[in-house]
Amino acid sequence: MRVAVISDMVRPNGAGVMALVGARLLAEAGHDVTVLAGAMSADLERQLAGQGGAAAFTNDERALDGSVTESDHLAFRRAVKVWLEAELQQWVPDALYVHNCGRILEQLDLADLSCRYPVVHTMHDEWFISDAHYTFRSPRNGETVRTFEPGRSEHVLEHRYDHLFDVPTRVGAFTAIAPSMWLADRARRVFPTLDVLQLNNAVDHNFFALQDRSSCRDMLGLPNDRSIVLFVGSPTQERKGFDLFERAMRTVDVGGEKPVRMIAGGSASVVTDNFAGSISAGPIAENLAVLPMSPLGAIGVDGDALVISGLDRSLVPALYGAADVLVHPSIIDNLPTVPIEAGLCGTRCLASDVGGTRETIADTSDLFSIDAGPNEIGLRISEALSEAKRETSRDRQLRRNAQVERFSIDQHCDALVSIFDGVIGRANP
Asked: What are phi and psi of 323, to 5 degrees?
């Protein structure tokens, strides 16, 4: 089977990871795979090309985030489609495996492609069924927030949705994969005649191995005498819930000790003055040596904090392992990989009970209501930090076992190949 994996941005984070994992699993299963990206770094393009096949329309991700004018942006999208058509004609795939693509394609583009090639589309958010990545109520002002692709109107009255009604009549051999049952149910209500299947995202449990907290801290240069609470995600993206995390952290107190906030995400690495002297030589100290582009105060932190951006991916498991507890307070989510990865590393995760998060957490008793206030969440964090001091290696192993059982790569690969066999069979009865 020859498969073209398509995504707007292919990179080692977010949905880009899922595109890369999918390509690797299909290749390891003996299939010919090429990765086609709207944007991908030149180094990654060369690496993937050497492993099988890869091409990118541009090596600059910023080009996908909008042009100077609306007409420029439309011209850019037309050029991407011409490029993609040429790549497909050259590769002649048996099927397309599409991930995030809203920056380069629209829903009807996928429908039309499925009349020429069998298409399997993994929905990493609500874009395919609503034209917005997510819809949620802002905790700041109560207004409804809809997150669209760059270059698209953010106002509902100015946004056209009529093309979505044409999707069911335009599709050919097409299967939509929803990583969570939450999203699968929503997609089936919107498109009851489409083939929508649920398949958990695969997470590399060999890469995210069980971690020892003390060893991780020694390797990263973090102190062993402070409690550390981890937040993973952009602190400036409202959907990630950093504001709630910060307000909760201000109430946390464990025997008179105030824990350190470790924030993995954002545009720059920076540390508060009081905590800087506690970081010894290691990869984090080297990362912090690059002067930040924005001050820590811009995200409103009141306490000891370390913000980490651009750390080598090989160190991510150690980052999870170094934390006493991870807090994942997203306002809305599909099937977030952060709770899965934390559990695989043995680290406890407290998370908001939204979207498909319940399907990812190692222990559902660690869920909290998104309507919970900062005092309630702060109390949960304080209790988790106290319990972390008594945590055993067996406790950490049990969390990992729960995640491996649900998100193993072998199970995912077998199911994925079966899905491709089915959609190709419908195209070529």
From this structure: -80, 145
